[in-house]
Structures are given as C-alpha cells and as structure tokens.
C-alpha cells in the first residue's frame, strides 16, 4: 500500500473516531447535570482526536500537492 493510500485510510479512521467523539460529547451535554464530572475527560478526548484529524488532513493535502 502506498503512503498516500495509508494516509487516506488513516484520515477515514480518524473521521470515524472524531464523529464518535463528537456524539459522545453531545450525549453528555444533553444529559447534564448527570455525569457532569466526565465533561473534562470527554472534551479532552474529543479535542485530541480532532487535533489528530486536522494534522492528518494537512499531511494528506501536502502529500497530494493541494
């Protein structure tokens, strides 16, 4: 598998993880004040996956020459 294909696969996986993290954060917000102590942990996980996704997208764009 080429480097481009591997990076495209990574971006797809990260997109899926980011979507799941977004939904987890959304569900937590809807249920507040229940489980309010989980806000920081869920938000940090969501932030981390979106940061990783953004970096991978930038890397992919550079590799594709966009």
TrEMBL record:
It holds the Pfam family Rop-like. Residues 4-31 form a coiled coil. Keywords: Coiled coil, Nitrogen fixation. InterPro entries: Helix_hairpin_bin_sf, Put_N_fixation. Belongs to the UPF0437 family. The keyword S-adenosyl-L-methionine does not apply. This is Rop-like family nitrogen fixation protein. It comes from Ciceribacter sichuanensis. It comes from the Bacteria.
